[in-house]
Amino acid sequence: MVKKELALLAELVNIDSGTGDREGLQRVAAVLEREVSDLGLSWETLEAGNGSLHYVARRGHGAPLLLIAHLDTVFARGTAAARSFRSAGERALGPGVADCKAGVVTILGALAKLAEVGWPDRELICLFNSDEEIGSPGSREIIERLARGAVAALVVEPADGESLIVARKGIGRFVLRVTGKAAHSGANYSEGCNAVLELAHKIIDIQSLTDLAAGVTLNVGVVQGGQRPNIVPDLAVAEIDLRTVRPGQETRVMAELRRIARECRVPGTRATLSGGITRPPMPASPAGRRLFEEFQKAARGLGFELTACESGGGSDANLVAALGIPVIDGVGPSGGGYHSETEYLEIPSLFRRIDLLAEVLGRPGAFPAAPL
Hints:
- The protein is an alpha+beta fold.
- It folds into two domains: about 1-170 and about 280-360, Zn peptidases (Aminopeptidase, 3-Layer(aba) Sandwich), CATH 3.40.630.10; about 170-280, Alpha-Beta Plaits.
- About 35% of the residues lie in helices and about 25% in strands.
- It has ten helices and 18 strands.
- The chain has helices spanning about 1-15, 20-40, 80, 95-115, 140-150, 195-205, 250-260, 285-300, 315-320, 345-360; strands at about 40-45, 55-60, 65-70, 85-90, 90-95, 125-130, 150-155, 165-170, 170-180, 185, 215-225, 230, 235-245, 270-280, 305-310, 325-330, 335, 345.
- A hairpin with a 7-residue loop joins β17 (about 335) and β18.
- α4 (about 95-115) packs across α10.
- The longest helix is centred in the first third of the chain and has 21 residues, at about 95-115.
- Its cofactor is Zn(2+).
- It comes from Hydrogenispora ethanolica.
- GO terms for molecular function: carboxypeptidase activity; metal ion binding.
- Keywords: Carboxypeptidase, Hydrolase, Metal-binding, Protease, Zinc.
């Protein structure tokens, strides 16, 4: 079993499947279809409104439980050939090995264990989406549709050690574009309208909206403007990241961002704001805590302890939580170096998480009997 699951992980890692790599993602999906078909699950390909493809495996009847893991990575075509799967001691390395191909293998491994010991008396729905790394723009509608009828959802993203994620920050992404009037900075300085100067004022105003005590942060992370030092710049652009911890916090911030865009200090400049909320916040909830406690019971039975943690990043769990559906995240194995050349998976964690997920899925009463 151990060799089979590592071999499966290697097979997946050695296929390039960056977001938008349709051919590579379909190759990964073909491997999954082979595996779940052998276990008796149905397989369905769903095309989102933007043309992206996502995949659903199902088995059983009764109140459905939704499991989610994504197939896409952040790596470009050719990365798998350059840095193919390898193991070094108790670590496995390769593009997307932990985020999130080990999560996919965790689901498949747990399903294989259930096939051996007996399936739970409920429907299991496994969604494998292909655009999580860019905010799930295509699969969001599919996630929400499947989640609305589910008793709970488990998102099999990588874990931080022996932990599960019970809360995540919400995310907003915005682009502020300032236009002015170009002029020669020596001969015609007063005819120019400096877009970079106006943007500088606005950046200070935007950063001042941060409220650390309330858990609200804004980060102007990318700034572009101007062409040459002797030209008064007529264009400046800033990209803004917003993080919140509670529903509703974004309303005030977005109103302030619109005000900042509207009010210009430098005569002759104008600004436009685009973007919005990509991931609503996933606050800790009593229902999520109950899910954590079920995982904790199972973990103790397997000889280890779990801790509940909160994450500043977002995932598909945010989309589920916004619907009021009980959800827990970080069900996948632990690793590190995500989105980098040093990404790794802790191999023992893979097998602990397979055992843990199988134990919880097969445990009577672990999940609500009907959708809340």
